[in-house]
Amino acid sequence: MKHYIIPIFIPHLGCLHQCIFCNQKRITGRETPVTAEQVTAQIEERLKAVHRDRWIEVAFFGGSFTALPAAVQRDLLSPAHLALEQGRIHAIRLSTRPDCINGSIIANLKKHGVSIVELGVQSLDDNVLLKACRGHNSQDVIEATRLLKKSKIQCGLQLMPGLPGEDWISLLATVRKMIELRPDFVRIYPTIVIKDTVLAEQYSQGTYQPLTLSAAVARSAYMKLVFEQAGIAVIRTGLQATEELDSKASVIAGPYHPAFGELVDSHIFYLMLAAFLEQDVIGRRTEIGIRYNPKDASKIRGQYNSNIKRLVQRYKLTAFNLSPDSAVKNGSILLTLKGDNYLLNKNMINRI
Ligand code: SF4
């Protein structure tokens, strides 16, 4: 069943710290805090428009929900909880900080029907967390994840490659530790420089340099591959495009792209083909045939056919014949070479 999210933005509500990269008002395009009446109105409005055969979730994003006073949490959750009990929605999710989870907070969330919690983790390198002024450390993440899993609340972890102080070694260590935590899912949001943030000041002073778009795509593709090979779903790469972000008025620098997730998936297809073509058995100056699921057409080609051009050039291919074939599974490639067929998928890329 397809998902339908009713988003309720609570920009910076409950935040105990001002993280250097964050300006939720610019990310969400919302300036004022939400009230319980507005939550009710937003749910009713969206429910009128949604198709009945959708899995509907109310999602509180953009602040530190569980750092709010218990009475405010109750007021905001009550309309969603009522809709859940009436069978008009299927789940309630929210995002919060790792140091704002404990036994009594979890009990309160369960009482109000919350079944999915996403933690803003960003990194498991304490040095990176310190530089980002997160106000919590990696141990807080480990403990919060343990408590959520123990209470059978689905736990999602959000990561931000490209923060100050992070390099490949730090990123690899974060990914390995995250896999040990066994979250239910992961989101990957490469760091971008948003106006009116400390990071924007650091960027203008020349003390912070964001990842280029291609570096962010490469890091995100690596992370997505490794998580998925470990059986952990990656449900998003890159920020959701909004008018505010697309207008360029808010993003000063960094790897923002409205179709970032598509770029990552496209890079993974490139890696699948490159990993195969690297094998000596293939030889050089040859031609290959590629059959793929029609849904993957743009990802296989890459933006402006970039995947095809790079592969043809690097492996000296004389022909690269592409044919859509709905019999090929989504995400897989049937490659024909010298009369033989090879089925490729992302699990075949060597684990790093
Ligand atoms: S990243 Fe999260 S905790 Fe930090 S300021 Fe933004 S909303 Fe608040």
Structure, explained:
The structure is a single chain. With 352 residues, this protein is α/β, with parallel strands linked by helices. The chain has two domains: 3-258, Aldolase class I (TIM Barrel), CATH 3.20.20.70; 278-348, Glutaredoxin (3-Layer(aba) Sandwich). It contains 13 helices and 13 strands. The structure holds iron/sulfur cluster. Iron/sulfur cluster binds next to loops. Residues 12, 15, 18-19, 22, 24, 63-64, 97, 120 line the site of iron/sulfur cluster.
Q: What is the third-level CATH name, the topology of the largest domain?
A: TIM Barrel
Low-confidence region ranges: none
Please give the CATH architecture of the largest domain. Answer: Alpha-Beta Barrel
Oligomeric category: single chain
Total count of strands = 13
Pattern of helices and strands? EHHEHEHEHHEHEEHHEHEHEHHEEE
What composes the largest sheet?
7 strands, parallel
H/I helix tally = 13
Summing up helix and strand content along with how strands pair, one would put the structural category as alpha/beta
Q: State the separation between the terminal residues, measured CA to CA.
A: 34 Å
Rg over C-alpha atoms, rounded to the nearest angstrom = 22 Å
Identify the overall geometry. Answer: globular
Average pLDDT across residues?
Answer: 91
CATH superfamily of the largest domain: Aldolase class I
Share in β-strands: 15-25%
Question: How many structural domains does the protein architecture include?
Answer: 2
Main-sheet strand order equals: 1-2-3-4-5-6-8
Just give the CATH class of the largest domain.
Answer: Alpha Beta
> Which bin fits the share of residues in helices?
25-40%
Bound molecules: iron/sulfur cluster
